[in-house]
Specification:
This protein is an alpha/beta fold. It is 41% helix and 12% strand. The protein has 15 helices and twelve strands.
Amino acid sequence: MAILSLRLAASAGFAAPPYPRNRSGGFAFSSSSCRAVAAAAGPGLPITVAGDPPTVVSAPGRRIVAIGDVHGDLYQTRAALKMAGVLSVESDGHVWTGGRTVLVQVGDILDRGEDEIAILSLLSSLNVQAKSHGGAVFQVNGNHETMNVEGDFRYVDPGGFDECIRFLEYLDECDGNWDDAFLNWVNVAERRKKEYGASPNGDWRPWNFVKKQKGIAARTSLFKRGGLLACELARHPVVLKINDWIFCHGGLLPHHAEYGIERMNKEVSMWMKCSGEDSDDETDIPFIATRGYDSVVWSRLYSQDPAERTRRSLMLSSVVAEQTLKTVGAKGMVVGHTPQTHGVNCKCDGKVWCVDVGMSYGVLYSRPEVLEIVNDRPRVLKKQRDSYDEMEVLDYL
C-alpha cells in the first residue's frame, strides 16, 4: 500500500523524498524521524490564523500531520498521535513532542466509543503545549459533531453517556472551572472510569431506566446548542485551509466554495453557540454545511471506493475536485468520513487524500495510519509489518 501511495503521489505531481527502508526493503517510519523533520525546519516565521473559528492558517515551513476519524477510541487516538511523532511514547503523561508540527484532526471524534470527551480534552491540551513550541493543533467538526449538537444520539456508545455523567461530576468538583476541568479530564478519565465501573450504578442494563435517563440528561446538557461542549465544538471550523491544503470532514464542493468558507464556519459556530430558545432550530441549521448528502460534513463524492463507482463518476469527481481547489487557491484536499479499507490513500488523480481508516473499535478497529505533509509532499505514516504469523491469520478467518 505504501508503494502504491507513492506511485499515485508521483503521478499527481508530488515529488517523493527518499524514505527510510527496513531490512526487507519496505518503507519504515518512526516518531523520532518525524520529529527530526519538524526540527530541521528551524525557527522560521510564526503561525498566523485568520477567522473565528479558524478558517485560513499560514504555517510557513511547518510539517503538517492529518488524522482521520477516531470515534471515541482514546487508545487508538494515542497510537495515531505517537505514530505521528507528536505524543510522547516515553511518558505516562500526555506530552507534546511534535515541536513546530501542525496537527489536524478532520472530525468525528464523537459517537461509537466511550472516551469522546477525553479525546477532546487531549487535543486541546496538546494545542496549548504545541503553541509554546511554535506548533499547533486544529480540529475540524464532522457530521457526528453536528448530529450531537442537534440532539441526535443514535450512535452514542453506552460508555459515552457514562463519560458525560462522570465529567459533569468532575466539573462540579472543580467548582465549575471549565478550563481546569476540561484540559485535565484526559489525565483523570481512565481512573474515574474504573471507580465508576466498580460502583453499583456503573452498568447499563436495559432495565436501568434511571441510569439511562441520567446519562441522556447529562449528554444533552453538555452538547445541546449553547451547552458547554457545544460551545467548545463551536471553536472549530468545518473547513480549514492550512497553507495550500484544504481540510474538511466530508468534502468541499464548488457550491460550498462559492457560498464562502468563512461564512459557513461562522454560521455553524453561531448555530452551536446559540441556545436556539428564541428561534426555530430547524430553520437555523446551516444546511449547506451540515445537512444533506452533498453538505460539507456528509459528502462522499471524493472518498467512495473506486470499485463501487463508474468510470464516468470517477472522472467527474476528479474534475469537481480540481475546480474546487482552483476556486479556493489550494493544491490538495484532505478528508475523512468514509473508512478506507486499504488504508490512507489518494483519489481524484492525487488531488484528494482520504485519511479515515476506521481505527476506532466501534468501526473497523484497524491499525492507525496518518498523513504527513512536508513541503507540499504527502506520505503515509503507518506501522510496517513484514509478515503475519499463523495465529494472526487465524484471528481473521
